[in-house]
Design goal:
CATH class of one domain: Mainly Beta
Shape: globular
Strand content: 25-35%
Distance between the termini: 13 Å
CATH architecture of one domain: Sandwich
Order of helices and strands: HEEEEEHEEEEEEH
Number of strands: 11
CATH topology of one domain: Jelly Rolls
Number of helices: 3
Helix content: 10-25%
Largest sheet: 6 strands, antiparallel
Structural class: alpha+beta
CATH superfamily of one domain: Galactose-binding lectin
């Protein structure tokens, strides 16, 4: 009986370590939470709170020609690992997607910069399919149209020329390592909803965020050998007790 308790305790400890390791290995680096306006500037820049996709707020801009959102004060990061095999991911809002100019990359860009103003990485934002409301955007580094120094990234710029007054917003800017389950093309909206104002707290429904429940299948797969081992161990202990 004592040997069975020792075996069961060992299995439970192994299961805890396995689950913790899988859950912690997300490979995510948050560059900007967008919960404050610290370091942010642009066209009619303001902080929104109601309906934030992550955290307590989001940064929004409004303009009739070219809404712009910038921040050049977040902590500098060496993003070399993400450039090799990763992507930029963030929530992006637009109230009237039909106003966005889509001619070429000179009309809309997303940039990561170094030293506050030196362009490091550029994506053609016209290539991203945006709809009214919040869009979950993924920009692989492999799709960048310009590459630079990854060792001191500390600024972002995003802008899009428009045909009429338009509101844009950004929330939870982060980097993610690409896994086999992630798309490699520029991300598109996964939560169009009906919200035409970033202030509207429109619940998209159940599990519309691709990040939600991420890794669950990996955890279950990792625990299968442990489950089989536990069952076998219990069977052996029962047989010994009968004899």
């Amino acid at each position: 009986m004592k040997s069975f308790r020792i075996f069961l305790t060992t299995c439970l400890l192994f299961a805890f370590v396995t689950v913790f390791s899988v859950s912690a290995g997300t490979g995510e680096l948050v560059l900007l939470t967008c919960d404050t306006l610290d370091g942010c500037w642009g066209t009619d820049i303001s902080l929104g709170t109601e309906g934030a996709r992550e955290g307590s707020g989001f940064v929004q801009a409004n303009d009739a020609s070219c809404p712009v959102i910038c921040n050049n004060t977040f902590a500098a990061n060496d993003i070399s690992d993400y450039v090799e095999n990763g992507s930029v991911r963030f929530w992006f809002y637009v109230d009237h997607a039909e106003n966005l100019q889509k001619y070429d990359s000179n009309w809309a860009q997303f940039q990561l910069q170094t030293n506050g103003n030196d362009v490091a990485y550029v994506w053609d934002f016209t290539a991203v399919a945006l709809v009214d409301g919040w869009n979950d955007v993924t920009l692989p580094f492999s799709a960048a149209i310009r590459n630079g120094d990854p060792t001191n990234v500390n600024a972002l710029w995003v802008w899009n020329y428009v045909t009429a007054e338009t509101v844009i917003a950004i929330d939870n800017l982060r980097l993610e390592l690409v896994t086999e389950d992630q798309p490699v093309d520029p991300g598109v909206n996964t939560d169009p909803g009906e919200n035409t104002d970033p202030g509207e707290n429109n619940d998209p429904g159940e599990n519309t965020d691709p990040g939600e429940n991420a890794g669950t299948s990996d955890i279950l797969f990792a625990l299968l050998p442990l489950t089989a081992l536990s069952v076998a161990g219990i069977a052996v202990c029962v047989r010994r007790r009968r004899h």
